[in-house]
Amino acid sequence: MRLFNRKMIERFANQMNHGPEQDTLAYLINQGAKVIETYVTMQERKAGKSYLSVINAANYMLRMFISIIVIQWFRPKEEINEHFI
After folding, report:
1. 62 pLDDT band (50/70/90 cuts)?
2. Whose CA is closest to 79, among 17, 27, 7?
């Protein structure tokens, strides 16, 4: 679970390339954003089924790895002075 402050939610809503995914978080941290982790208690799923099968999870991890390692080099640099959780 992630919580974001108002400025970061506005950034995600208004900038096409800023979705709240792992590669974007890595990019924002690299640009100076502050991340704070906090403890939460989650309940077990009561209904429905996760879309993450073994293949989907591996595919997601591969896409994030490629994005963080390769694509981050080509994203424009910007200075961020915001905090988000």
Report:
1. very high
2. 27
